[in-house]
Each structure stands twice: as C-alpha cells, then as structure tokens.
Amino acid sequence: MAVAPQGGFGLTVQIDVSATLTTMAGIEDVDFPKLRNFIAETTTHSSTNGYYEAVATGKKRVEPFRMVLFWDTGDTTHAAIVTAFDAGTPTSFTIADPDGDETIAFECIIEEMERMSRQEEAFKCNVLIHPTGAATIS
Amino acid sequence: MSKLPKGVKQVEENGLTLYEYEVTGFKTPHLKKLLNHIAKHPAPAKKAKPDKAEEGK
Fold this sequence. Notes:
By secondary structure, chain A is mostly beta strands.
C-alpha cells in the first residue's frame, strides 16, 4: 500500500485539569517527545575491522520536550501548567498527531516555564515538559 | 450547517469547538483531520442479523 503522508498542522495536546484530560488551547508549536533507548558501547580490541559495537542496556526514556504557548493565564489548561509547575508532581499529558493515528500518553513534570515578550511577537511561554515513566502509544 | 458524519459530535472544551469521533474518542478542531482519522479507524461492522430461516428453527 502506498504511503499516505499527513500534514503536520493540527496536532492536539491534552493536559490533566481536575482529573479530566482537556485539550490545550493556544499552542504555537510543540515538539513530540523523543523516545530513547540507552545504548552502551561494547567495542573491543578484537571487534571486526575496528567497527564500533553496542548493546541496548534495557533502560529507556521519554525525553523532555518543549511547547510554546500564546500565554493566557485565564485559560484553564495554561493554569494547569502553572499548577503542575508549583506542585512539582507528575501530571497526565497526551499528544496526538493531526490525524489522530497515534496518541502518546505519559506522566510529566513541568520543568521550566519561560515567558517571552518580544517587541514584534505575541506574548508567549516556552514550557519544558519532563516526562517520567513509560509512554503509552495507542 | 452541514450534517456531521455518523459517529461524530461537536463538543465544547476549554473554549474550543472540537469534533469528537465516538468510536475512538479522538478530538480535533479540524473536521478534515477528523475525516482522515475516521478513514483510518472505521467503526466496527455491525453483527449480521440472524437468518430468518435460522430464527424459525
């Protein structure tokens, strides 16, 4: 079957607001979290032709990622970011591609909030999201 | 307003108007994206009704 590419515009992000996953408003852009396998080098002095060798350690990680919001403290999902930052405890989060083929769900801690007010731009907040535990992809 | 596809309802959430596909629970503000989603996740086929001759047995 031929590949049917989808456009990158229109992703959806949800955050826990009072125990309900709620669609976030005002997202300018967001990176998807990178999934990482920790790899250890196992190259030896007798490795064939001197080529690097490796093994998966078994440790995995959902890497931190950034989301830029048009910042509005009156918005419930933006307020949930502030609440999660203050609490420092993991909060539920999901991110789905525009066509909803995959939804990645995980718990995360809000690591950084960087408000930005540049003269020729809208007022924004750059949020660093730090996942903890496993991601579920459905 | 045009009629929404079967299994789709409009919901208000956090000040956003979203289209929700009841089969998967996927929500998006973009109808075109939802139609793509539905094409990839069709509703499961309904069970065929038992044959009348079978029912009479």
